[in-house]
Amino acid sequence: CHTSGMLTPNGKEYAQKIPREELTHLILKLLQAWKEPLFHFNQHIEHHQELPDDSLSKAKQISNMVHELKTGVEKVTEKMQSMGIISNSLNGMASSEGIGLSISNEANMMSDSDFIHCFRRDSNKVQSYLKILKCRILPENSC
């Protein structure tokens, strides 16, 4: 996976020990890491004539959802900063330059099944990290 080089916690216990700010940064970093590969994946599958239109629209829908999620996390981050929950040190870190991520051709060279496996793995991480972050910010949710 093209994101394998990113340092991410192994398991929920370790993720719970990461400070809010770092966890937020990690979420943004993972979401940004998929922007370009998803774009290339969509271009790749558009050329497969044998794929049903439903598959093509689902792939585009996933890309749009990742973009919307990243935008939503950025807005939550801004709100957390304005409330003093986290510092302003995350400003400008949502771009691939700001997070020090160089997207290689590795993501573009993966087989479709490997690509989907990696995407699912990272999606599950993002989901877990968001749940942990939510519980830290809103502890009344009895997490």
UniProtKB/TrEMBL annotation:
SUPFAM superfamilies: 4-helical cytokines. The keyword Secreted applies. Keywords: Hormone, Secreted. It holds the Pfam family Hormone_1. GO terms for molecular function: hormone activity. GO terms for biological process: positive regulation of receptor signaling pathway via JAK-STAT; response to nutrient levels. Transmembrane segments: none annotated. It comes from the Eukaryota. One of its GO terms (cellular component) is extracellular space. Coiled coil: none annotated. It is found in: Secreted. Belongs to the somatotropin/prolactin family. This is PRL protein. It comes from Pitta sordida.
